[in-house]
Amino acid sequence: MRPHRIVAFFLLLACSAAYADKHRDPLTNAEVDQVRELADQPEKRILLYVQFAKARMLAIEQLRADNKLKTDRGKQIHDLLEDFTTIIDELDANIDMFDRQHEDLRKGLKEVVEAYTDWQLKLRAIKEATDVSKEEAHAYDFPLESAIDSVNSELDSARETLDKQNKYPKELVKKK
Predict the structure, then answer these.
(1) What is the pTM of this model?
(2) Distance CA 63, CA 81 (A)
(3) For residue range 111-138, what is the model confidence (pLDDT) as tens digits?
(4) 127 with 92: CB under 8 angstroms?
(5) How distant, in Å, are the alpha carbons of 8, 30, 37, 122, 125 from that of 58?
(6) Between 43 and 15, where is the model more confident?
(7) b/e string for 10-40 if b means 16 or more Cβ within 10 A?
(8) Cα–Cα distance for residue pair 122/50, rounded to 1 Å
(9) Among 13, 43, 51, 123, fewest CB within 10 Å belongs to which?
(10) Alpha-carbon gap, residue 60 to 86, rounded angstroms
(11) d(CA 141, CA 144)
(12) Residue 23 has pLDDT above 80, yes or no
């Protein structure tokens, strides 16, 4: 039985390493530090996530515009779309967390809603692009659909949270 345990251990270790490689952190170390610094400032932290997502979307747009990078562009866009989706999912999680803590997010949520609306248009443009080869489009088809679904869902969630906070502003924490 002992050799089977050793083989199982190494197989599990190899699978863990492969999983860790595929699921990298979408934020740089500097971005992680910025998020940590704003742990006690909900509105600024939320807007920081918006800034990070905008940066990923800008990188996608730049890649799509640069015809010199056609060789690996599909894979790069795939990775950026996955990072973008992870960041906006984290943005949504932060909005939910701070809303449960009755933080006043109204000003930041207006910017979040505007950003989501802009991202909807940009993602739709990526999906409807006709100047892309089938191979390239296929490389990022799934993460694009995931990003579109996340943006649509989280836009609705942000609007609901903003509406709720606008209806019941007295319930929000008063900052001193």
Answers:
(1) 0.82
(2) 12
(3) 999 999 999 999 999 999 888 889 989 9
(4) no
(5) 44, 18, 24, 10, 13
(6) 43
(7) eeeeeeeeeeeeeeeebbeeebeebeeebee
(8) 15
(9) 13
(10) 15
(11) 5
(12) no
Looking up tokens 């599990």 gives: 12
How many CB atoms within 10 Å of residue 148? 18
Determine contact, residues 118/124, Cβ cutoff 8 Å.
no
Task: Please provide the DSSP assignment of 27-38 as one string.
Answer: S-HHHHHHHHHT
Query: How many alpha carbons lie under 13 Å from residue 15 in its C-beta half-sphere?
Result: 6
- pLDDT-derived band at 72, boundaries 50, 70, 90: confident
The sign of the torsion formed by the CA atoms of 121, 127, 128, 132 equals positive
Contact 59, 80 (CB under 8 A): yes
**Average pLDDT rounded to a whole number, residues 21-29:** 77
In this structure, what token pair is assigned to residue 58?
């800008």
Q: What angle do CA 126, 131, 132 make, to 5 degrees?
A: 70
**Closest residue by Cα to residue 28 from 59, 69, 2, 4:** 59
